[in-house]
Every structure is written in structure tokens, then in C-alpha cells.
Amino acid sequence: MQSNFQQKKVRSKEAKPAVQDIHEVVAKVFLAFALALIGGLVSSLIAVSHKSMCRLISLAAGTLLGVTLFIIIPESMETLSLLSLVAALASGYAVFFLVSRYVFHVCPACAASHFDEAATHHFSEIATAMILALGLHSTLDGLALSWGMDGKMAGNVDFSLVAAICIHKVPEGLALGALLMASGFSRLRTVGLVAAVESTTLIGGALGLWLQPQASARWIALIPAHIGGGFIFLAFHAVFGELVKHGRKLVLNSFVVGVLLIVLIHFTIH
Predict the structure, then answer these.
(1) Would you say residue 163 has pLDDT above 60?
(2) Residue 50 and residue 93: Cα distance in Å, rounded?
(3) What is the rounded distance in angstroms from the CA atom of residue 52 to the CA atom of residue 63?
(4) Greater confidence, 119 or 229?
């Protein structure tokens, strides 16, 4: 009986999802933060053409959709029921939709077209709402980067997720920096504000490291699915937002390249 108890204890330990190495998490989260900061620095020094911005935004949107459709959803289905998966995706989509509708756009890159008009002229009126919305978005980015998967999911999801988020961070920093510069801020203050807003990515990373050891295998699958729902919102919000005012061919081509890039990364690693 003692032997059976010990075997059950070993199996229980083996079933517990592995927590990511803290050094790897710190490296990934700081990389994402640094890329957003670099984007803000670049946009404070040089004027980035809207055509280039559209291309980057659409590419990044494609990577977010690609990692959700081809990696997060299939892997989450191994643990979650279809109903749980749909609920998690819907909740992630709903959070970003409601924040964008009633607070502020959760991603400056995904809503770049909106910043060409009233936003830059009334920045002082929207600053608090913008910081809250972008803070939520970046916190979830950090949480996604720090939230490890179980043994089967770890390798494929981890690298592709890091790639998608980091690719997205560059145009995010560029768009935020451009908004701040257009609102009359100095270069130094612009970079400082980009760093302050994007530092919530680091907070999300720390939150993930703290919460994950206490999470069950079900939550290990639910959290990425919830974040994936937010990625779906960002992807379509970015693409359709840019398609309304700008070239369809440029946007769609870049978007497809982003999706294919994630598929290529995933199957190369797999």
C-alpha cells in the first residue's frame, strides 16, 4: 500500500505543469519591453511613413492571429472542452472590445488611423484612459510571455508566442511614440512615457511568475486561450481599421505574411 501511495504521489508531481525558468521569463519580458521602447525611440527621432507603419501593423496582426489559430487553440484543446475553449476566447475578445469601446484603444498600433485626427489634439483629455488601456494590454503581453505551458505545449507555443508578441511590440512602440510626438511632447519625454506605459509588460511578467505555481493544469490552458481571444480582437481590429482608409493590397499582403511566418516557425520547430 505504501508503494501504491508513493507511485500516485510521483504521478501527481509529474502531472503538475512545469513552471518556466525565471531567467528565461525575465529575458523574454525584457526583450518585449526593449523592442517597444526602441519603437518609441525611433518614432521620436525620425518620421515613420504611414505606409511603413501600415505594413508593420498588418504584419504584427498576422503573427498574433497565426499564433492563436495554429498554436494556442490546438494546444488548448488538448486540455479544455470545446465549451471552455470558446468561453475563454470569447472572454479575451470581450475584454479588449469593451475597453476599446468605452475606455480607449488598447493598442495604439492596431488603431493607428484614429490617431491622425482628434486624439493628438486632445491628448490631455484622453491621457489617463490611454494609459489604463495600454497598461492592461501590455500587462497581458507580459503575462502571456511568463505563463508557461505543460510539457507537450512548452516548446512549440513558447517560441512562437514570443516571436508574435515581440514583432507586435515594435509597431506598438512606434505608434505610441508618434502619438506623443504629435501631441507636442519633447523627444526625451516621449521616450520616458513610452517606457512608463510599456513597463506594465514587466509587471505582467512578474504576475505570471507569481501566479503560475499556484495554478492547476486547467488554468494553465485557460489563460493562453483567454489571451488568444484578445489577440484575435487586435488582429482584426488592426486589419479592418487600416483597410478602411488605406490600401487593401498592402495591408492584406503583410497580414498574410505575418500568419505564414508563425506557421513556418511552428512547423520548423515541431
Answers:
(1) yes
(2) 27
(3) 17
(4) 229
DSSP secondary structure string for all residues of 142-183: HHHHH----TTTHHHHHHHHHHHHHHHHHHHHHHHHHHHHHT
User: At 98, is the secondary structure helix, strand, or coil?
Assistant: helix
The pTM for the full model equals: 0.83
Rounded Cα distance between 111 and 61, Å, is 11
